[in-house]
Design goal:
By secondary structure, the chain is mainly α. Helix content is about 65%, strand content about 5%. It is elongated, with a radius of gyration of 24 Å.
């Protein structure tokens, strides 16, 4: 509806401006939550936001790879297409979890719950981004003469609709629906912050995945093909929902219990000074010996844990 925004002598692309505002809102929200709600040290905040910035770059490339793949699959030959948000989420979210595990030592073993603290900002940033889509006329819905909006001539919503000989026709503003949904998720995560903060990631994956799956029935733009009845976004939505459920079950200790035990060991390591691996293990053994002397653990438990730790040297 407003591809170019004029601010005095400046002519700014509406889409780019809203994406920039969304990125700023995302990082600002993450900073405020980590600093004032979680009281995290400055070094943890800076490292977390730095890794988030790297993950956003990976997210951009992942979004392009997925979109190009589905368009190439539809057309039968390789085609470099645009970007798809869900494809970016799959790559970007995975990248942050891996990067935080290796480079954010303070949160090793609890990366999922830590990343969940950044999810409200991501939802808010995406809401601004979808408003940008509305201003630019992309990601539009199906033709609707009763509930549609008319985008300017020359916008994607105009150029992509076949047999349009009389100018733009009204289409459903699916961009604003998605922006409103993401804003609602952001507000809910903030209102229920203390209760749900640990599961923001899982909750967002499931709720957004379901919403986006349904929204696809109202979208009118071309996003490629999968080779069967589901659209690319619906297929990726199912991936998000399944991932959210699996992560929740993992966090609850229902599945992947051995990995959960490793995470517990990593959390213990994170509490120790940044020493060498052998020094950290010896300190843990000393601590276990103290617990045994105080009667907090049995001799058998001490011997079992000690043997397990020595295997890691």
């Amino acid at each position: 509806m407003l591809p170019v925004i004029h601010l005095g002598p400046l002519a700014l692309p509406g889409y780019g401006l809203m994406v920039a505002i969304g990125v700023i809102a995302c990082f600002l929200t993450g900073f405020l939550l980590l600093k004032y709600a979680e009281k995290e040290p400055t070094r943890v905040i800076l490292k977390s936001l730095g890794l988030l910035a790297v993950s956003f770059v990976i997210m951009y490339f992942s979004a392009g790879i997925f979109d190009s793949f589905f368009h190439s699959l539809k057309e039968g030959n390789f085609r470099a297409a645009g970007i798809t948000w869900e494809g970016g989420v799959i790559g970007g979210f995975t990248a942050y979890i891996l990067l935080a595990h290796f480079f954010l030592r303070e949160k090793r073993g609890q990366v999922l719950s830590h990343f969940s603290l950044l999810v409200p900002g991501i939802a808010l940033g995406h809401a601004f981004g979808r408003v940008g889509c509305f201003l630019g006329g992309c990601c539009y819905g199906k033709i609707s003469f009763t509930h549609g909006v008319v985008f300017p001539d020359g916008s994607p919503a105009d150029l992509d609709i076949p047999n349009n000989l009389v100018g733009s026709v009204p289409v459903l503003p699916t961009q604003l629906w998605e922006a409103g949904f993401e804003l609602l998720l952001f507000l809910l995560m903030m209102a229920l912050y203390r209760k749900v903060k640990k599961y923001n990631l899982e909750g967002w994956l499931v709720t957004y995945g379901i919403f986006r799956f349904v929204l696809e029935y109202f979208r009118g733009d071309d996003r490629g093909a999968t080779g069967f009845f589901l659209s690319p976004s619906q297929l990726m939505s199912m991936v998000l929902v399944v991932a959210g459920i699996l992560l929740f079950l993992f966090e609850r200790g229902v599945i992947f219990r051995r990995l959960g035990e490793k995470c517990a060991a990593w959390r213990e390591d994170a509490l120790l000074p940044p020493l060498g691996k052998t020094d950290r293990i010896l300190l843990q053994i000393d601590y276990l010996h103290t617990l045994k002397e105080r009667g907090a653990i049995t001799e058998e438990e001490y011997d079992s844990k000690k043997a397990e730790l020595l295997k890691r040297i």
